[in-house]
Fold these 2 entries.
Entry 1:
Amino acid sequence: MRLPAILTILAALLATSSSMASADDGDVVVQAGHQGRPASCAQLHVKACNLGTGAAGERERAWTVTVADEAARILRARGYTVIRRPADYADHDTARAAVFVHFDGSAVACASGASVGFPDTTSRAFVDAWKKRYLATFPFRFRGENFTENERRYYGFRKVDAPEKLLIEFGEMTCPAQFAWMRPRLLLLGDDLAAFLMERLPR
Ligand SMILES: [Zn+2]
């Protein structure tokens, strides 16, 4: 079979599966930013295929997976139902909270730092609790809340119904000092995220 024919069949199958996309219910949605790209962009017709940042031979889309998997592992061990999502997927979820894991990059090294993005529906208490927890350990600058349109209008927010939705940029990979601080702590960042979610979502 010629390759284009295979692709046509695959596209038809994917179109069928996305039209049958189901709603998944859980306690928490944990998305690893950029995971599965670029392959998933073609499959799911994503035009703005942002592959994420990177530095020193490391990619954001590998770091986000490490953090998201660790947070999901801890939450599941404590009995929470976790919907663990990559960058692109057909389904729409319902949960108590949704977090979207990212690391930032900057054209001017160290111009950025940690930040958060969220829709208007997310509570002030949820945002403040994360900032208070994370900034107690992250020893670099906090860049701001919703400081870009991409943060405020993150496409992932539309993929889930949840009272609390938060995009977390843990820090700037392209800043050598932040990179050196974060790199050996990826699992700890996941643990911290899980602890935060368990505190905000008591069982
Ligand atoms: Zn990102």
Entry 2:
Amino acid sequence: MPVLRSTFIALSRNRPLRHFCENSSVGVRLSSRFVAGMNLDDALHVAEAVNQQGMAVTLDSLGESITSEPEAHRAADIYHQLLDLVAARKLNANISVKLTQMGLELSTALAESIAGSLTQHAHATGSFVRIDMEDSKLTQVTLDIVRRLHAQPESRGAIGVVIQAYLYRSQADIEQLIADGIRVRLCKGAYKEPAEVAFPHKSDVDANFIRLTSMLLDSPIYHAVATHDEAMIAAVKDYARNNAIEPGHFEFQMLYGIKRDLQRKLVQEGYNVRVYVPFGSDWYPYFMRRLAERPANVIFLARNFFRS
Ligand SMILES: Cc1cc2nc3c(=O)[nH]c(=O)nc-3n(C[C@H](O)[C@H](O)[C@H](O)COP(=O)(O)OP(=O)(O)OC[C@H]3O[C@@H](n4cnc5c(N)ncnc54)[C@H](O)[C@@H]3O)c2cc1C
């Protein structure tokens, strides 16, 4: 793993730095490049604007690795409010949820029960819950929870999960998820993983990404391909074209603030695009992972900061 990438990922777990940044006005200003705002209203405004550009949204109320049960319930309350507001305003938006924000590191049962009530709520309002994937220690428990919730009639179809192409296990996981009829978002993976569990080289991750995408596109289920990598996007389009797969059979997903021109271009070409819109005051780990993906972002942010 390149040194800068692992440095930013290590910094994303630094609590004192996190506290300092999240409470400084400079930090909040910098975060606005990748974060839609500090509160629910900011997020809904952005969702509306993104919808007006012909793209769907998934909303992420930022936060992860909470340390108490009341915190987990408070985090879930925000998502419940979101589901009601999205329905009331008729937005084309669903939600993305991290199980560590729902208390997974405190208790599996707690996270499962909170995720279950969110999924039932989403089912009732015609929405959908995407469970984000976190580091590889949590892959199995995350998949187990998603599978159990998906099996409940009052949640069925309203929950999906994320698979990371950098993990060796992902092909087997995708085979199982397709067999279970569970919707997948495929991404490359954003955490620092050892070579025992993940491909260390980008070329292998990319090759696996293309292999896994073809499995998803061949299945009868509506899946999502999440990447800003133009080579991956071109490979997905080629595969779909060569195999008579309709553009409406899947969606591309990208992060808020990244490759906006490409997002619009895909819409013009007739593809479904969903933008991942994060918001909230707990933005620091998310922001640092975005710097890890592209350390040149630091220069870009600094230049814009001093210009404004
Ligand atoms: C919608 C969505 C949801 C995601 N959910 C998860 C999840 O649940 N779990 C998880 O582990 N990861 C998640 N990720 C992150 C993902 O794993 C990658 O870390 C991230 O998408 C970067 O990989 P890439 O596919 O864009 O390709 P890369 O090879 O990393 O990048 C390709 C090109 O895209 C551009 N680019 C990529 N990242 C950035 C950036 N931060 N800033 C500016 N330009 C950039 C650059 O031009 C770069 O050259 C998600 C990503 C997306 C788009």
